[in-house]
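Appendix B. Chain record.
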Amino acid sequence: MGYHFYFINKFLTLLGLDHFAHETQHVTHTWLIMGLLIGGAVMICKNLTIIPSSRQNVMELIVTKLENFVIAITGHKGHFLVPYIATVFLFILISNLLGLIPGFFSPTANLNTTLALAICTFCYTHAIGVKQHGIKYLKQFVGPVLWLSPFMIPIEIIGHFSRILSLSIRLFGNIFGKESVIGMLFLLAGMFFAPLPVLFLGILFSFIQALVFSLLSMIYFSMAMEDAH
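Structure tokens predicted for this chain:
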């Protein structure tokens, strides 16, 4: 744990909350990333100009690429998904990259964080399905033939809840593994002498995991919007 969490844990210990002291790491970093995202968005939106600055150009490029990516997967009817996907992608990406900085921790290396993200996607998926198809959305759990419903309903329910495990455990396992490997290298080779190729791979790996989570979320959203329901 980084030195910047020493006083937080000391304060919790004085309050008699020793049991929760070790849990503050991912929570504090989560709030840090949320603050960075909100603060950055406010600063950029506050200074928008007709002739964009270099900072505005970069953000417009990121938003445009994400928007095109979402539309390519979900079609134009999925344009309303851009804010959610962009938020999730940027949060996961920054969370993954934060662990590459000595003294910091990736919130996505904690199962609580990835589980919360997966539950958000799970709930939003079914909210989209109900909004698009109404009560007819529930027909997907019954199956194509009514007499198969006693078999199909349990299978469909298990399949949908397994998405939570798939999204959360995949992201957690990969980022936790990355954190462990880089942490071992820092201990063996020194904080400032860890092999640079491993850090570059960590950056690439962080981007891929954010992309995979966002892509799977969009696939689930697209399935919920299909006319077959």
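Further analysis of this model is presented in Appendix C.
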